[in-house]
Design a protein that fits this description.
two-stranded antiparallel ribbon; 21% strand; alpha+beta
C-alpha cells in the first residue's frame, strides 16, 4: 500500500503502472485491489479514499500523496462518529474537538 501511495504523489496510477512498479502480473494487481478495497475510477486509475485498512493508513496517506484525506470513522467504545482532515501539516477540523487514537503496545 505504501508504494501505491508514493506512486500517487506523482499523479494518477493505473493498474498497469502499479504492476510495473511492483513487478506484479495483472492477476496479482487485481487480487491486491480486491483485498485492499481499492477501486478503479472512471478514468481507469486506482482510487483511494473509500476505505483504509487501518488508522495508520489514514494518517500516512497525506504524507505520501501530498493530498489531504478526510477521515470519517465510528468510535468502537461509544458508537459516536469521529471526523477529521489529515494534511501534511497535521490533523485539522477534528470533531469532536477532543478526540484521540490509541495504538496497541509494542510486543
Amino acid at each position: 500500500m505504501i508504494r501505491l501511495l508514493v506512486l500517487l504523489r506523482s499523479g494518477p496510477v493505473s493498474p498497469e503502472r502499479l504492476a510495473t512498479a511492483m513487478l506484479w502480473t495483472s492477476t496479482q494487481v487485481e487480487k491486491f485491489l480486491q483485498l485492499s478495497g481499492l477501486v478503479i475510477d472512471d478514468g481507469g486509475n486506482i482510487e483511494i479514499g473509500a476505505f483504509a485498512g487501518c488508522a495508520l493508513d489514514t494518517l500516512l496517506a497525506p504524507l505520501l500523496t501530498g493530498r489531504p484525506t478526510r477521515v470519517v470513522s465510528t468510535c468502537p467504545a461509544t458508537g459516536r462518529q469521529i471526523r477529521l482532515t489529515v494534511t501534511e501539516q497535521g490533523i485539522r477540523e477534528p470533531s469532536p474537538k477532543r478526540c484521540s487514537a490509541l495504538a496497541p503496545p509494542a510486543r
